[in-house]
Specification:
There is one protein chain. The protein has 197 residues and is α/β, with parallel strands linked by helices. It folds into 2 domains: 50 residues, RecR Domain 1 (Helicase, Ruva Protein, domain 3, Orthogonal Bundle); 107 residues, 3-Layer(aba) Sandwich (Dna Topoisomerase Vi A Subunit, Chain: A, domain 2). Helices cover 46% and strands 13% of the residues. The chain has 8 helices and 6 strands. The strands form 2 sheets. A 4-stranded parallel β-sheet has the order 4-3-5-6. The protein has a two-stranded antiparallel ribbon with strand order 1-2. Strand 5, helix 7 and strand 6 form a beta-alpha-beta unit. The longest helix has 18 residues. Keywords: DNA damage, DNA recombination, DNA repair, Metal-binding, Zinc, Zinc-finger.
């Protein structure tokens, strides 16, 4: 392997989230030192994933099946659709094991600055899924950012006229959180979303 190939590997690793040039160099060196036990299996796994993983045509998640294992699971509640920004958010909800409905992955958020409009997020696919039934509630699990809230309002305006309940995740003080350590936005959201005890 020439220095150019090593530099290319480092450059590609540095493009991964959370890895800068120094971390990428350390990762590349680690891989090179453990070629048989780590690099070769990693190359095989990457090749297999590249060849077999695709977007689910129904919800937009990543899976080796089409439709994905979540959409194809008859035990999932088809009356609930949870809308998430990306696959990482879906995985986070699945890790919690609390939601038993189906998902819709937007693949991003509306952003005038970045030129992302409703057509880029497949909102027409979401509207079609809701229209086909038997959906009774759409849960918006979107970030509490300007883009997330803008996206939520657009989706609510699209879905609510169809007589479907549109809800959002609760926001506020996390379990075990101390008020002194929370930012002003979180405290404001918590006060506005207060409920009877």
């Amino acid at each position: 392997m020439s220095a150019g190939e090593i530099d290319r590997l480092i450059g590609l690793l540095a493009r991964l989230p959370g890895l800068g040039p120094r971390s990428a160099r350390r990762a590349a060196l680690h891989l090179l030192k453990r070629r048989e036990s780590l690099m070769d299996p990693l190359m095989e796994a990457l090749g297999a994933v590249a060849a077999s993983v695709r977007l689910c045509p129904v919800c937009g998640t990543l899976d080796t099946r089409a439709p994905c294992s979540i959409c194809a699971d008859p035990r999932r509640d088809g009356t609930l659709i949870c809308v998430v920004r990306d696959v990482a958010d879906l995985w986070a909800l699945e890790r919690g094991g609390v939601f038993s409905g189906r998902y819709h992955v937007l693949g991003g958020l509306l952003s005038a600055i970045d030129g992302v409009g409703p057509e880029d997020l497949g909102l027409d696919r979401l509207a079609a899924r809701v229209a086909e039934g038997p959906v009774v509630e759409v849960i918006l699990a979107l970030p509490a950012t300007v883009e997330g809230q803008t996206t939520a309002h657009v989706i609510a305006d699209l879905i609510e006229p169809k007589g479907i309940t549109v809800s959002g995740l609760a926001q506020g003080v996390p379990v075990g959180g101390e008020l002194d350590y929370l930012d002003d936005g979180t405290l404001t959201a918590a006060l506005r979303a207060r409920r009877p005890v």
